Here is the input.
Amino acid sequence: MDAPRSPDHAQGAAEPFDFGALCDELRCHSTEWIAAAREEAVREQRRWRMRELAATRVLDERGRIDDTLAGVDGVSIRDVRATVATARALEDLPSIAQVAAEGRLSDAQLAQVVKVADASDEHEWAERAPRWSPADLAQKARELRTPTIEDAAARRAARELRTWWDSDQGMLRLRGALPDVDGATFELVIKHLIEGMRPAPGRPWEPYERRGADALMMLVDAYRERRADETTTVPGAHLVVQVPVSGPATVAGIPLPDEMVEKLRASARIEPHLVDDEGNPIVIGTTASVVSSKTKRAVLLRDGKCRIDGCDVRGPLDVHHLIPRSWGGTDTIDNLAAVCKGGGGHHGLLVPHGPYILLGNPNRPDGLTLLPVTDLPALAHLAAQGARADLARAGPDAA
Here is the structure.
């Protein structure tokens, strides 16, 4: 018996197909006619899908279907196995098969409804399934299936978190998977953090994905702070900075501007490595001290909220160097102030990596002034005020 052919199949070699010409042909028709033609094409495609499933079922019975079919069809092994499972189930679900053959079920809907229906209720599902989304049908299938302890163990064994550096983009990439309860817990916490990240006054909302990254870092920072409270040494990130004879310093092989290293100083220990042209260490410098956990707690307790005028954000907060270390600033409390962190916070606006500088006496509630770094007269006036105040505190014999 000859193999079945599509109605449009011509004898001999297939004729060249011109998609643009077909589009031009359809452009000669009304919108309503084209919509009807598309609907008919979808129905016909779904009828041929049923023929494919029937052929798959028979070949499966004859042991002629295996994972190698994925390469033949240009699909994934997972798709092949799902097709076989659907074909096996349909033989016992004639009402659903009929609805699918009429073109009323998409392939995605069909793949899920066969997991939901059985011989006792397939008539009901044949009517209901066309109105359900594939996602809703998949959820219903999960609800009907009671997982075994082996299923739970398999999910647990499949958990993973992978990280790798994208050197071209200078980004740490992440990919992971969490099982059932762990996944639900993580999702609940991370969503709560994201939704609580209101931008500072006058700042736009960051995209949800960026706030997600900030929320993940909040969890990291919270763990680091807790560990710092439990131990006598601060276990914050030990940042190895490789300083070549020429060219920019690097962290984890990623070139960084000096301002970026400055930004990380408050939460990391920096160990400079002078390296040769091939990256081999020549000299390893002394690990620089970070702002101590005790000092950070004192700053956060003193300030209580972001020190930018008009900002009432009380967390999450960073401890910011008013005069950056790279400019000669110190780690003492009179050079530190709390500012709101994250993608929508004020910390990113401040020197050395932003266009503004926060100056003054942080120990006074009204002692800080935010100025553009380009406003030289105002900066000079503020510096002169600070010098006079220092002289007054020193007493008449200071000179």
User: Anything to note?
Assistant: The chain is about 45% helix and 15% strand.
